Amino acid sequence: QMADPFLYNTGERSHYGCLGHEVQIDYLKAYVCRPSFFTDKAVIVVHDVFGWQFPDIRYIVDLMAGHGYITICPDFFKGTEPWKSTDHWADFSDWMKNHDPMKVDKEADVVLKYLKEQCGAKKIGIVGFSWGGMAVHHLMLKNPQLTAGVSLYGRIIRDSEERYSLLNPTFFIFGEKDHTISLDQIFLLEDKLKQYCKVPYKIKVYPGQVHGFAQLKPEDMKPDDKPYIEEARRDMIDWIKMFV
């Protein structure tokens, strides 16, 4: 029996009243939140396995919008069922086969087109969590339209040296106690990026933090973790502000 991949209990989420609204873009549903003033800067948020409707991810969308970005979280699962905390961990690899974070290019293009044509966005960044962190890593290798990316605790896939030739500045955030990603893997990622990456990148490991730590809402944080959660979020926003 493997450990559950998510150490935070999704059953006890505090209720969250969202600030944004849902839209239909082509074949995708999406959650959008806009700042109160006009901007031509946007951020795509890529959800984790719990999907685009999960309150924690909507909180992050609203947070980014509060920093002055048109922020959008599309349903990268295209209407199929997200993973639920009641699902059996034994079925996770089968579920993943049908929800491949490396197969997000078409959805990303649909959303980029919407942001440019409907929202007037000129610079677009991307942040993603867990499953979404893997998707961000992939997209930062493939899509030059994304000005900067932040990948939060996306499992590190070592399929080829092509995994390290990032097109634009990318920041990788990890928790020290994440049992899905070993520190060895993180050191290897750092080595390979030093070798192959031609654009700014950064890797940071947050002490004592488990998988999923950075998207907790304030009322769900444990006091010991709070400073690290807040620091990770600040770092994420600072990276986007630096490049987008």
Automatic annotation (TrEMBL):
Pfam families: DLH (PF01738)
GO cellular component: cytosol
Every Dienelactone hydrolase domain range: 29-242
Transmembrane segments: none
Record localization: Cytoplasm, Cytosol
GO MF entry, a single one: hydrolase activity
Entries under InterPro entries matching the protein: AB_hydrolase_fold, CMBL, Dienelactn_hydro
PANTHER family: CARBOXYMETHYLENEBUTENOLIDASE HOMOLOG (PTHR46812:SF2)
Family under the similarity heading: Belongs to the dienelactone hydrolase family.
Name of the protein this chain belongs to: Carboxymethylenebutenolidase homolog
Native species: Climacteris rufus
Taxon lineage: Eukaryota, Metazoa, Chordata, Craniata, Vertebrata
